[in-house]
Amino acid sequence: MGDNTEISWTDSTFNPWIGCTNVSPGCDNCYAEALANRYRWAKWGNHNRKRTSSENWKKPVRWNGDGPQFKRDHGHRHRVFCASLADVFDNQVKPSWRRDLFALICDCHDLDWQLLTKRPQNILKMLPADWGSGYPNVWLGTTTEDEKRYRQRWSILARIPATIRFISYEPAVGALGRIDLGVGCVPDWIIVGGESGPKARAAQWARSVRDQCQALGIAFFHKQWGTYRSNPAVWSGAPEADARALDPPSNGKGGARLDGRLYRQFPEAKAVTQRAIA
């Protein structure tokens, strides 16, 4: 975890602590749990979370110092996914740790922080008192692996003011259904990713999500099919070797092309309409 990452929709990952508890079917084959168990970083489930080292906490400060140069080199602000091995809005995290994290986020204003949670119901009570209409460098997201979780979680997140609000539809283990739920707004960004690994469940709903995103003006990012058996270029009859040639690993596990092209869109904060808490 750190400076470089294989996660295609971010630039770096930062974990202020490690550990989580599975809450829904999307957690069944959790990569973070597997890594934590393999390297004995932390115990999953109803156990104490493990705060990472002070040296690790210095990394965002270093990235922030390089922020202006990063933007000149890459054409966008440095994006940081926090936390890939935990959940910022986890009930079992010490409140003082979360306060330390938000202080760090405020100090590192030249970074765009992507906070992704499966617990949007906790966000409001855990945000800092000065959140207001949202920190300008924080994107709030929630994971929704199927239609049921999308309806539950987006309905909550949609009411919370933020510079960017996004959906991580990964692992996609069921159809997402209708994106516009009639709650006054739609996500600014949707990431689609099929499940990978030996126990991966097939994911074939990316086209429906793309079409809805295009109609609604939502930035669409297709991360990966997850496995080659989920890739239409394979199951529609094209030789697997051809699919591999068209979609090298750098474009996502199992390839990421959808109808012959890659979708790598990002939202723009200036286009976001913020909404007060109802």
Percentage of residues in helical conformation: 25-40%
What is the H/E order? EEHEHHHEHEHEHEEHEHH
Tell me the Rg in angstroms: 18 Å
Please, what is the average pLDDT? Answer: 88
Spatial order of the strands in the main sheet? 1-4-5-6-7-8-9
Q: Which fold name fills CATH's third level, the topology?
A: TIM Barrel
- Low-confidence runs: 271-278
What proportion strand?
A: 5-15%
* Terminal-residue CA separation: 37 Å
Biggest β-sheet: count, sense, barrel? 7 strands, parallel
How many alpha or pi helices? 10
CATH architecture assignment: Alpha-Beta Barrel
Shape: globular
What is the β-strand count? 9
Name of the top-level CATH class: Alpha Beta
Count of distinct structural domains: 1
Which structural category fits the helices and strands?
A: alpha/beta
Would you kindly provide a written description of the structure presented here, covering whatever features stand out?
The protein has helices at residues 31-39, 54-57, 59-65, 67-74, 95-107, 123-126, 147-157, 206-216, 232-235, 240-246, and strands at residues 12-13, 17-18, 50-51, 78-82, 111-117, 138-143, 164-169, 189-193, 219-224. The chain is an alpha/beta fold and 278 residues long. The chain has a single domain (12-271), classed as TIM Barrel, CATH 3.20.20. Strands 1-4-5-6-7-8-9 form a seven-stranded parallel β-sheet. Strands 2-3 form a two-stranded antiparallel ribbon. The radius of gyration is 18 Å and the shape is globular.
